[in-house]
Amino acid sequence: NQVGTRIPAMPDSWTSWMPSGMPRTPALELAFRRFAAAVVHLDYGFGRLLDGLDSLGLRDNTLVVFTTDHGMSGPRGKGCLYGLGTEIALMMRWPGVLKAGSVDNAPRSNIGFRATFAAAAGVSLQGLCQGESFWDSVLS
Q1: Which has the closest alpha carbon to 76: 86, 88, 85?
Q2: Which residues, in sequence order, are CB contacts of 67 under 8 Å at separation 6+?
Q3: DSSP code for 6
């Protein structure tokens, strides 16, 4: 992304995307079109943030974390114990430390985030907070 450029248009293939098993109603289709547009906007803004870190020469010594606090809205979404309601995003970038493009699909609890980010900084919080660090597993 280039700083100052316009937000890209939403891909045509996203205008009709809905999770499988979701009832196709006009209200839900509109909600998911808006969701897809929000993802495009977020991607643009996040790209600008990464470009800024790169232009400041901070790429290689900055851990960048993107996460969400709950699952998707809609039927069987947030507030429910179905996949759409419990899955959250967690993406991390730290060139030279984390392997680019690696994926870890192991179930994680966000209660371990504090211990994980402390471990990334070389600090142990063992016995000082709840949750287990999963930092070692994202390195392998």
Answers
A1: 85
A2: 88, 89, 90, 91, 110, 113
A3: P
Rounded to an integer, what distance in angstroms lies between the CA atom of residue 17 and that of residue 48? 26
Q: What is the pLDDT of residue 6?
A: 66
Nearest residue to 35 via CA among 64, 86, 71: 71
* CA–CA separation, 135 and 139 (whole Å): 7
Q: Tell me how far apart the alpha carbons of residues 26 and 85 are, in angstroms, rounded to a whole number.
A: 21
Residues sharing a CB contact under 8 Å with residue 99, sequence separation 6 or more, in sequence order = none
Walk along the chain (140 residues) in steps of 10 and give the mean pLDDT of each run. 59 71 84 83 90 94 86 72 75 86 82 90 88 83
Distance in angstroms (rounded) separating the CA atoms of residues 59 and 93? 9
Q: Could you give the CA distance from residue 22 to residue 66 in angstroms, rounded to a whole number?
A: 26
Query: Phi/psi of residue 91, each to 5°?
Result: -125, 135
| DSSP codes, 16-78 | T---TT----HHHHHHHHHHHHHHHHHHHHHHHHHHHHHHTT-GGG--EEEE-SS---STT-T
